[in-house]
Amino acid sequence: MRTIALLGPTASGKSAVALAVAERNPSLELVSIDAMQVYRGLDIGTAKPSADERARVPHHLIDIVGPSDEFTVARFQREYRAVRADIASRDRHAILVGGTGLYARAAIDELDIPGQWPAVRARLEREVDEVGAANLHRRLATLDPVAATKMEPTNARRIVRALEVIEGSGRAFSSFGPGVDTYPESDVVQIALRWPRDVLSRRIEERVDAMLAAGWLDEVRALESVPKSRTAAAALGYEELHRHLSGEWSLERAREEIVIRTRQFAVRQERWFRRDPRVEWIDIESDPVGECVALVESRLT
Questions:
Q1: How many alpha carbons fall within 13 Å on the CB side of residue 19?
Q2: Residue 58 belongs to what domain range?
Q3: Could you give the CA distance from residue 254 to residue 79 in angstroms, rounded to a whole number?
């Protein structure tokens, strides 16, 4: 049985399809490749599977760290490899499901991901503020010309990351493999769900309303006193609802901002997956489960 990765933008229905396929094939277990579902307490806003759904089908890489913990792609890759080995040891098989593109690549393509050196990064970020990204780009060109040619001199974030890795690891940034711009052959079958843009936009709005009706605001209120890592703080919607709770925004304004940001995020997700020529797209008309389950099952063997 082959490994399937169900991908695509938020609100596309991929989790429902994965659950339906797994329920029809008892040897399957679901592995989340969602950067925010790893956090305990961020439940409604990250669209985690319900307790009932998790009881019906085994799920992995959900609720594994607290909101104050930093969770990196490298950490995800380590956790995923352990889960993959565990599933295989029991003669079972995985369906990967989620929309975090870099996590998908880390799982599917065994990317060689460098570590992180926060103190080095902080110092380099201060240097950018003081002397500008172009100066650091010239330094990068001296230390790792290959990496420098792939980065715009104005892209401070990427330049800082490259210099951080060089200083922290003692290796050239470009030595860490082909990166995400190369798409090697893979045994994993990647399937992505695609809706007409206007329909997906409406689904996003409906999902935000459903989350609010399910108690999302209370969830954010309960997290107000909990310190959040840089990665957890990036979860869509939580900052907007915090602004409402602090009196800065009306609930209507917060809702509208969440819808806008989520739509923008969905566009970026779809753009990411479109770059990968190995991804097989399924165009959905109305019912992702009804339209996709048989096709996904046909790719399992």
A1: 17
A2: 4-112+187-298
A3: 34
Task: Report whether pLDDT(17) > 90.
Answer: yes
Categorise residue 113: left if φ over 0, alpha if ψ from -120 to 50, beta otherwise: beta
- Position 266 scores a pLDDT of 97
Structural domains of the chain, count: 2
Q: What is the pTM of this model?
A: 0.85
Tokens for 285?
């008309």
Helix, strand or coil, per DSSP, at residue 21: helix
What does the angle CA 18 – CA 195 – CA 266 come to, to the nearest 5 degrees? Answer: 85
Burial 88-97 (b: 16+ CB within 10 A, else e): eeeeebbbbb
| Among the listed residues 83, 105, 74, the one whose alpha carbon sits nearest the alpha carbon of residue 5 | 105
Beta bridge partners of 189: 4
Per the structure block, which two tokens stand in for 282?
A: 């399924």
Query: Which ranges of the chain would DSSP assign to H, the alpha helix?
Result: 14-24, 51-56, 73-89, 101-108, 118-131, 133-143, 145-149, 156-169, 197-213, 216-222, 238-245, 251-274, 288-298
Instruction: Report pLDDT digits (tens) over 139-158.
Output: 999 999 999 998 999 999 88
Statement to judge: residues 94 and 24 lie in one domain = yes
Same domain? 68 vs 192: yes
